[in-house]
From TrEMBL:
<dbReference type="InterPro" id="IPR002129">
    <property type="entry name" value="PyrdxlP-dep_de-COase"/>
</dbReference>
<dbReference type="Pfam" id="PF00282">
    <property type="entry name" value="Pyridoxal_deC"/>
</dbReference>
<dbReference type="GO" id="GO:0016831">
    <property type="term" value="F:carboxy-lyase activity"/>
</dbReference>
<protein>
    <submittedName>
        <fullName>Amino acid decarboxylase</fullName>
    </submittedName>
</protein>
<feature type="modified residue" description="N6-(pyridoxal phosphate)lysine">
    <location>
        <position position="274"/>
    </location>
</feature>
<dbReference type="GO" id="GO:0019752">
    <property type="term" value="P:carboxylic acid metabolic process"/>
</dbReference>
<keyword id="KW-0456">Lyase</keyword>
<dbReference type="InterPro" id="IPR015422">
    <property type="entry name" value="PyrdxlP-dep_Trfase_small"/>
</dbReference>
<comment type="similarity">
    <text>Belongs to the group II decarboxylase family.</text>
</comment>
<keyword id="KW-0210">Decarboxylase</keyword>
<dbReference type="InterPro" id="IPR015424">
    <property type="entry name" value="PyrdxlP-dep_Trfase"/>
</dbReference>
<dbReference type="InterPro" id="IPR010977">
    <property type="entry name" value="Aromatic_deC"/>
</dbReference>
<dbReference type="GO" id="GO:0030170">
    <property type="term" value="F:pyridoxal phosphate binding"/>
</dbReference>
<dbReference type="InterPro" id="IPR015421">
    <property type="entry name" value="PyrdxlP-dep_Trfase_major"/>
</dbReference>
<keyword id="KW-0663">Pyridoxal phosphate</keyword>
């Protein structure tokens, strides 16, 4: 299995995604008859490895997906054999997780003592952060529920759906999320202040401001220092969705500057599995005020009481900082990647992804009929293949091009709607992509657009 896995990584460019045939799908039907390990290895090599989702390939830029690292293979083997449950108690994986949280908090510029917990991804991190924000304004809410309190939250238009979902799950509801208009991709701070004043006048309790570090459609960043000032003046909890974009913190100028001010957030949600390339799944919520984090989640019945010594010792326990009691060992793959590749190499890959997005923009602008939806600010490039056609014709053609290139196993773009047109979108969080991948992809789009 190890040899087949290494082959897969070495030949990743020659092994694109492919259709899962009916025979293969049928073969996944559970028979549970028992098989030898050798038979299992050959079945997995034949029926699992070829049918990946494409995101390990150098020409995959759809949605925002991470590309995985060879270090995951090393960490995965060790993680499988120790099978750590990181909900609590006194063992190595918990110390490692705290070290990973400390490193990340420091990189983000958050205060010393910042608390955190590794989670499935930014979606879960957002739920945890918003609950901490709510408990801060309603200390009894865990016991009494929210009742008739009208809590309101604020975010820019174009906020990721994870924010809506978290508000929905917490029973706050999207109707109480105010979407503030954007100016040049950033929340309009004057409109934000006006909306807060209007809500207060109407008897609402504004409690949460959500900033964007890397928007999902265009890779845009809010003015995070501006948001932190508003949050301080208005006594709001500032949360930043930095799912992928927080990691410009370890990139070079000018991209690093995009996330300036991120360390002033009360809470920050980010993923290791997107722009840090680490294998799925792994996200992190950071909360500046450890007591506020703990106040929102700690609750241990007597059978989980900590002891002074032995395996039931150790403090703190991660089950007091999030939703899960039993938890896997996500820290090991992060720690292995950080230690093996080093911050400089990871930061250089992030910088290079931004440079490649700028190169894609140049390639687009060099063609007469292609047009960018907006200037490229980070690692996301959105464009139409034929700006000379009607909006509807562009939408049909762009969607068709995206699907054709996917089906041919050549390039993965996704789509997004900008200026009323369905456009091609590349979010480059891929350390395997090179200049020639970008040039070939835009050339392939141009060839299909000429036919269209
Ligand atoms: C991906 C993403 C999310 C959701 O994160 P998951 O890790 O998929 O749960 C939230 N916000 C942004 C900006 C994202 O790109």
């Amino acid at each position: 299995m190890l040899e087949a896995s290494i082959d897969q990584l070495e030949q990743v460019a020659e092994r694109p995604w492919q259709d899962v045939s009916a025979a293969v799908k049928d073969g996944y039907g559970v028979q549970a008859k028992g098989q030898s390990a050798a038979e299992m290895v050959s079945r997995i090599t034949d029926d699992v490895l070829p049918y990946h989702g494409g995101n390990i390939h150098p020409r995959f830029w759809g949605w925002v997906q991470g590309t995985g690292l060879a270090s995951d293979l090393i960490a995965g083997m060790a993680g499988a054999v120790i099978n750590a449950n990181t909900g609590g108690r006194d063992h190595g994986a918990n110390y490692m997780e705290r070290a990973v949280i400390d490193w990340t908090g420091a990189k983000m510029g958050m205060p010393e003592g910042t608390s955190g917990v590794l989670v499935t991804g930014t979606s879960q991190a957002t739920v945890i952060a918003f609950q901490a924000a709510r408990v801060r304004v309603m200390p009894e809410v865990r016991k009494t529920g929210q009742g008739s309190a009208l809590l309101t939250a604020y975010a820019g238009e174009g906020i990721h759906n994870a924010t809506r979902k978290a508000l929905e799950l917490l029973g706050i509801g999207w109707d109480n999320l105010r979407l503030v208009p954007l100016i040049d991709g950033q929340m309009d701070l004057a409109a934000l202040r006006a909306q807060i004043a209007q809500d207060r006048a109407a008897g609402a309790l504004p409690f949460l401001l959500v900033g964007m570090a890397g928007s999902v459609d265009l890779g845009a960043y809010d003015d995070l220092n501006g948001l932190a000032d508003v949050a301080a003046d208005e006594d709001l909890w500032l949360h930043v969705d930095g799912a992928f974009g927080a990691w410009t913190r370890i990139a070079e100028a000018p991209w690093r500057g995009l996330s300036d001010g991120i360390g002033r957030a009360d809470s920050l949600a980010l993923d290791f599995h997107k722009w840090m390339y680490i294998g799925y799944d792994c996200g992190l919520v950071l909360i500046a005020d450890e007591a506020a984090h703990r106040a929102a989640f700690a609750a241990r019945p007597s059978y989980l009481e900590a002891a002074e010594r032995g395996l039931a010792g150790g403090d703190p326990w991660f089950c007091d900082y999030g939703i899960d009691l039993s938890r896997g060992n996500r820290a090991l793959k992060v720690w292995t990647a950080l230690e093996m590749y080093g911050e400089a190499a990871l930061g250089a890959a992030i910088t290079d992804n931004c440079r490649l997005a700028a190169l894609m923009a140049q390639e687009v602008e060099s063609r007469a009929n292609m047009r960018l939806a907006a200037p490229v600010v980070s690692n996301v490039c959105v464009f139409t293949a034929r700006a000379d056609l009607s909006q509807e014709a562009q939408s049909i053609l762009n969607s068709e091009i995206v699907q054709t290139l996917q089906e041919r196993g050549e390039v993965v773009f996704s789509t997004t709607r900008a200026q009323g047109v369905v456009m091609l979108r590349a979010a480059i969080t891929n350390h395997r992509s090179r200049d020639q991948d970008i040039r070939a992809a835009v050339a392939a789009v141009a060839a299909l657009a000429a036919l269209g």
